Amino acid sequence: MDHGNQSFVVEFFFSGLSNSYQVEITFFVLFLVLYLLTLFGNFLIISAIHTDPHVHSPMYFFLGNLSFLDICYSTVTIPKMLVNILSDKKTISFKQCMSQLFFLHLFGGIECFLLIVMAYDRYVAICNPLRYHVVMSYKCSYWLVASTWLAGFLHSFTQAFLTYQLPFCGPNNIDHFFCDVHQLAALACSDTFVIDMFIIANSGMISVSCLVVLLFSYAGIIITIFKIRSSEGRQKAFSTCGSHLLVVAFFFGPSAFIYLRPPGDFAGDKLLSVLYTALTPLLNPIIYTLRNQEVKAAIKKLFRNKLSPQQSKFINTN
User: Mind listing the pLDDT tens digit for each residue in 217-235?
Assistant: First the structure.
């Protein structure tokens, strides 16, 4: 393959998570279970929100979109990793590698912006409840979600375009289990300092902007919550915001460490990557289900409609 008159790499080889076949088989079973649970949990939330009119509000519309993104995000990396574990050679073609990088940053970027939109939604609901349905109308909600997709696409296109411009003439061994910018930049046959700085600046601008919006939103939310006289009202507000903050911490923590530091190998990169590509998409539905009574009720209602009267009675008693 002649790419930029310098690149002859047609495929890359992954190192995977371990050199031991027995350990890799253990990882295969573990990640297969995690992936199936991720699909089940997030599809369950999407179905419950779609079928129950009581949760047809902007907050749950955003939550349904978050579940959809979690499904897409984990699907970008986990199935390919599972296939490679069972293969003699852990390979990916050049075009597939670039596609994986693009969609990884597309869905990751959209989720980043969507979490900010969800923080703003909670800010309006708690700090200005009387105008909530005016400010967060369905039309506004659709436009906000559309804007997260546009912003995520611009971020992903920038990352993928800069990486695609790099010349790859060997070696082609990626010390990871999926394609990402830092690992690919390390394999380039030219000086990547400028591109590395652009990549870090792009990720840094997004992370800092999101952090500022989050801080201002939750500063206003916390001040307003402490003004609520009803202890039940304060507890409900804290519960809703607590779920969102947990999701934000699980998503932003590992990804910020990986993408905001200077390029270079770090022993914990694979572990952190597992956290935000495999565990976080699974934890999100669990966090929102355990801490949100409306979601619990919608899921129970969904099961009641699908099960026999005797089984439905059992669910109602629990």
Answer: 888 888 888 777 777 767 7
